[in-house]
Amino acid sequence: MPMAAPKPCAHPGCGQLVRDGTSRCSAHKVRPGSFADAGRGTRQERGYGAAWDRLRRRILVRDGGLCQPCLQAGHTTAAQAVDHIVNKATWRRRHGSLKGCDDEGNLQSICNDCHRQKTDREKRGEA
């Protein structure tokens, strides 16, 4: 069987070449039974279970599958995600709980580029 071409480990800052066809070197592989980011918890623990999946589909249909920030900027881009307009951390700070955070009025369809930029602005405290 042919071997995959070596490629750099996907772990940020690691330059180790991976030759086994996976994306991470042996030092950075996710171990069976472990979670990639234990500090964040599972998607269900963070509120992204089956109910979120249903709500996400409803928002994407509502917004016609189009990125709302792109539409506001005057161009059309397909949305891949649903975003909390007021993020969960800010919502909890303002309201004392997450009650109402997942209301449809606080959700928008968004493309990956806009979502990444918005998240970066929020991390820098600009949004």
From TrEMBL:
Keywords: Endonuclease, Hydrolase, Nuclease. The keyword Coiled coil does not apply. It holds the Pfam family HNH. Residues 67-121 form the HNH domain. Gene3D superfamilies: 1.10.30.50. Belongs to the HNH nuclease family. This is Putative HNH nuclease YajD. It comes from Aquincola tertiaricarbonis.
